[in-house]
Amino acid sequence: MAYDPENIFAKILRGQIPCRKVYEDDHVLAFHDINPQAPVHVLIIPKGAYSSLQDFGANASVDEIAFFFRAVSKIAADLNLVEPGYRTLSNAGLNAGQEVPHFHLHLFGGRPLGPMLARP
Ligand code: AMP
To answer: What's the CA-to-centroid distance between 8 and ligand 1, angstroms?
Structure first.
């Protein structure tokens, strides 16, 4: 999937669209999902232009990948999700129903999250 610089998260990164920011550093931005599916539902995105987890895992630098997952752990800890537990999820491509073509990790918490996948 070619990266579309007009996707909504690219616009958030450029400050063209507001977000409810949770965390930011030189490599990563995290903000509340506009349509939360749990009491805590945060989206964590790299600042680099990667269209999906597939693209990020294959093409990001080792540093970008490390900074990203260090940030995920910090955000989960800052939101007090470590002890009660949390879930991360990344939709990649059509079968997963990925809507926004900028790699993002969903971070869910704040209640027992139930089964991993909805039944068809
Ligand atoms: P996905 O289906 O994995 O691509 O998820 C995209 C997510 O982005 C959905 O959970 C949407 O609710 C969320 N979303 C879309 N637009 C915005 C926005 N402007 N601010 C925050 N979250 C958004």
So the answer is: 8
